[in-house]
Amino acid sequence: MDILFLGIIIFLFVLAVFDLSVGVSNDAVNFLNSAIGAKAAKFKTIIIIASVGVFAGAAMSNGMMDIARHGIFRPEHFSFYDLICIFMAVIVTDIILLDIFNSLGMPTSTTVSMVFELLGAAFVIALIKMWGDDSALSLMDLLNTEKALSVILGIFLSVAIAFVFGTIVQFITRAIFSFEYKSRLKWKIGIYGGLATTAIIYFMLLKGVKDMSWMTPEARQYINDHTAAILGCSFVACTLIMQLLHALKVNVLKVVVLIGTFSLAMAFAGNDLVNFIGVPLSGFASYQDYMANGSGNPYDYTMGALNGPADTPLYFLIGAGVIMVVSLATSKKAQNVSKTEIGLGSQNGGDEMFGSSRIARRIVRTSISIHSWAQRHIPRKVRMWIDRRFDTTRTQAEQGASFDLIRGSVNLMLAGMLIAAGTSMKLPLSTTFVTFMVAMGTSLSDRAWSRESAVFRITGVISVIGGWFITAAVAFIGAAIIAALMHWGGAPVMILVAIVAIALIIRSNLRFKAKKQEDRGDAMFQAILSSDDKEQTWDLLKIYIATQQKHFLQFASTTYTDITDAFIRDDVKHLGRADRALYKEKELLKNERRKETLCLRRVDADTAIEKSAWFHLANNSCMSMNYNLRRITEVCKEHVENNFRPLPESYRETFLPIRDSIINALAQAQILVENGDVKAIISLRKECDLIKDTISRECHGIYDHLRNGATGNLTVAYVYLNTLQESQEMMSGLRKLLRATSKLRSNDPVARVGAA
Predict the structure, then answer these.
(1) Residue pLDDT, tens place only, 160-207
(2) Membrane-crossing residues (predicted)?
(3) Sign of the CA dihedral 708, 714, 720, 724?
């Protein structure tokens, strides 16, 4: 049995490595988002600065380990076997839960998952003990309910606190600097930089360093007695340094953002490192105590030793920091999660990641009503002053940035202060909650949520917050079920759970790699949004639209081939794949339409008006062709799933030449949407008409055949007719797409040559 427990401890540490990698993809990215979104420095520079912050903050994690040891349950009433079940259930549930959320690109919270997993696993083990030999014990005796409640309240209150503080602080900061801040810095930047740096010194150093294990009681007392003097000297010195840097033409805001990145990285490591390694280290400490004093009886030996303070060796903390930094720099999932927060807080209209929801629409409508009421009651001069300070058309963000350095600095400073304050009170505030909600509050103050984007942004925020609550529920239930199964099932179930966890991790990563596609034309889309030359914008937009249309035509050709082949072969598996791919392509088309509409607004007004009708016709044609393919797939899939008769040989011989001509037309169209050769487009449109005529003759032949009382299977005949009719409609859609393409490209040199 002791060998099994040793294996479990090793397994906990192995999963902790995965947990560090997966968790950093979700949580550690939070302290990079503001620097990345504001383009404060090169990505490598940001990573290096963040890495130093992680290493510095790792030394602060020791006190936070107490949450995993005795913050949720009372270990003196739990046996070694009970705690092994709890710890293993927590780590297995955590790794699977976080990996699923990261694969979906949704930021969740390691703090929430860990706390609720501990609570769920401890709760079910407590119930088992209450119903068993320890029936004299109550739930209050077994669970540290007071501490657990304070931790949970701290986590969820941080949502409201971070959002409110983010909104207020950003409003004040923006009112001072305005969007046209570069010409208004002068003496302000020294004071702002001094305040920001002093805040770092207070919350990062005074609240962090004095809790380090190497600090003497005398040094701690000195810091407590002279806090005001230290802060005053820091403010004066930092203000003078920042003003001097500004005089030397150094961008002080970039310095502030990078210092903030460092500070938030420290806060992250000090507050969240416990979420990644706290449970395995607590399990290791339990194993050491059991082997030394347990006398080989894991079911009766209680773990009161965990009530003592954690004394984590420094090499564990440093090793965890190394894994986090490497994972952060190499993780594709981290970049996927990062896009969510940056996208929802972007100052520019852009690629909205979320759709519209009823609650978001109501919130927006209510907000508009409140705004209208406020405008009627606020004096006109005050309104004019606010509008001047918050004129978003004068924004001076860095090239390609989602927001400016003013907002980036507020995001980092405020989030770092709130997290450090929670850490100093031994409350594991969620870095995800705090950084995300601060970013949403600052973006709201900055008027980043325009009427065109507000409903999508609010839907996104609601979706993310909803994901956090789902995390709590799933973590509690999942850990409770796994803990109960292991407690009752013993060693066989523990081994089985370990195998399943590893298999799910491998499967999840393989599926993520298979699903991951590069954002189509994303670099060009950003270039269009950031371009100030309207003529260049239109040239880029034509290339961008052509690229998307070519991609869709390639997809349509491949999918049409797969669908018809699968129907002929009676292959339901490939029909199911095609059905899922078509629904996914529908969402991509809707997303591209939104992005292209945003780009069209940046084109010269006369050109936009002239081309808008053809732009919408092209997009509608693609949507129509996608619908035709879906209708073919649905009917064929239902037919094959019901095991009805396959397509007769006589139908195949007639259909295959028609299909080949359709695929050939789609292949030609891929070339023409790029070069816009009007003469070739006219020729291909005529070819589409000929294909439609051929399909019509085939349909009429089948109708005549059926009216003459021909014997045969009517069901497969109707499916075949549906395929022909939808194929005919798809050719109509292709004709319209080609016509729209020729009109959109009508002023191109290639198009004029082709027309000549």
Answers:
(1) 888 889 889 988 988 888 888 777 777 788 888 888 888 777 766 655
(2) 6-29, 41-60, 80-100, 112-131, 151-177, 189-206, 226-245, 252-270, 313-330, 429-449, 461-485, 491-510
(3) positive
